[in-house]
Amino acid sequence: MITITLNVNGATHKVNVRPGESLLSALRLGLGLTGAKEGCGEGDCGACTVIIDGRTVDSCIYPAGEAQGKKVRTVEGLASNGKLSPLQEAFVEHGAVQCGFCIPGMLMSATALLERNPKPSEAAIRLGLSGNLCRCTGYAKIVEAVRAAASPA
Amino acid sequence: MQSFTWINAKSIEEVKGALAKHGKKARIFAGGGDLTTLMKERIDTPEFVVNIGDVKDIHYIREEKDGLHIGAMTILADLAEHEAVLGRYTALAEAAGAVASPQLRNMGSIGGNLCQRPRCWYYRGAFHCYKKGGDFCFAVTGDNRYYHSILKGELCYMVHPSDTAVALLALDARITIAGPQKEKTVKAEDFFIGPRQDVLRENILQPAELITEIVVPTPPANTRSTFLKTRIRGSWDFALASVAVRCTAKNGVCQAARLALGGVAPVPLRVERAERALAGKKITRELSQQAAQLATAGARPMTMNRYKVDLTRSLVEKALLAVA
Ligand SMILES: Cc1cc2nc3c(=O)[nH]c(=O)nc-3n(C[C@H](O)[C@H](O)[C@H](O)COP(=O)(O)OP(=O)(O)OC[C@H]3O[C@@H](n4cnc5c(N)ncnc54)[C@H](O)[C@@H]3O)c2cc1C
Ligand code: SF4
Ligand code: FES
Ligand code: FES
Asked: Domain B223-323, what fold?
């Protein structure tokens, strides 16, 4: 075991990891942040998506040690003072959530997308979410929610 | 995953030292997008994993007098969005942008993309085929619908999975290799090797060598390039077939062309016969169709992938008309 220092959602934590252990495992088992999910564990599904220094990655195949000195953001960091982010609100409002398993990853991809491109076209939204699989919703409501969050009524 | 020792190299010298010391027992870890999954499935079980993510002087894209210099650890997302790459090395930006998903493009390096292992599902599964030192290719009689070849297959019928490799061949790129010997530079098309040369690997790298840089020469005036790819799903997937073309043309007349195919052979494949047919001629639909025929001449489809011949032809035709 080695001890690494991670900056997650603005707070600094020390966590013990095995060499080469994934960031997903460090977040879930080491820090108890179980928002990011393990779907495939191989970079296929995006359920484990987190944001590192402004860019999304699949944390299931990202070594925890590589995240040292960088800013990691997970779904737990989206709400502030107990209030959901506008994007999260839009997901609730538009019925974009069914079983919910893919949603933490969807939210992180959509958050990163809107930060880089506040007014994305539908094509840009679909491209931005193309690394996140959902088995339930058929994507339409998710795309709607992102579009609504991008242009608040 | 089998346990291993993680070596966090900070310089090329440290990488070379670790590779020289541990030889075949060591693997380079760049973005880890491919290596991690191979290790999780125990298809590859290195004892030493040498991380090059923290080696500072291999993350860069610089346009210099002689062309575009790309550090091996440069991530694909940066290549796909880079202004100079989009403008003058378009096929490369398009290929980098067509790799996998946004998350994987944020993690995956160009060096790792070129050195990734086959996507044949027998290789990825529990089958001891030629590629793993066995004496059988399961794809010949098995399921060869998607990730198997129509050209140049023998022993192993994999297709090379890298999208960026196809663009680099068309753009006449050079690959710089460091190792125990003096640094050397090879043409992209000489970097990749087919199963007849060595079925256990897909490129010329020796165990103690690594890619440090890729150089794409400045294209001549009046040159355009493009990369086109067909995949099963709209969201992300490996190529069923892809094509990259670079064409120098004046008033619609092609002066010189370079054409490479992906998803159809064990190597990214340059098709010189088709290139020669284009030189000095006006690019019309008929000429593109002829070039497309030549590009796939000699194709020997497998039991389930005959469609790839037509697919490749139509991609070649489209790509040529796009750059003419
Ligand atoms: C779900 C999924 C879908 C994908 N789809 C596509 C696709 O459509 N098109 C495509 O082209 N790719 C695709 N990929 C590949 C991927 O996106 C990465 O480009 C690839 O994983 C390699 O990049 P990496 O930096 O992560 O390399 P790693 O996984 O770290 O390394 C890959 C291999 O290259 C070796 N290596 C790495 N860097 C060097 C170097 N500098 N010198 C010598 N050897 C080196 C490693 O030892 C290892 O064997 C996909 C991957 C996944 C998991
Ligand atoms: S195509 Fe190559 S990798 Fe696939 S089963 Fe045959 S020998 Fe193995
Ligand atoms: S769990 Fe990471 S991509 Fe599926
Ligand atoms: S809501 Fe169930 S997987 Fe997306």
From this structure: Enolase-like; domain 1 (3.30.390)
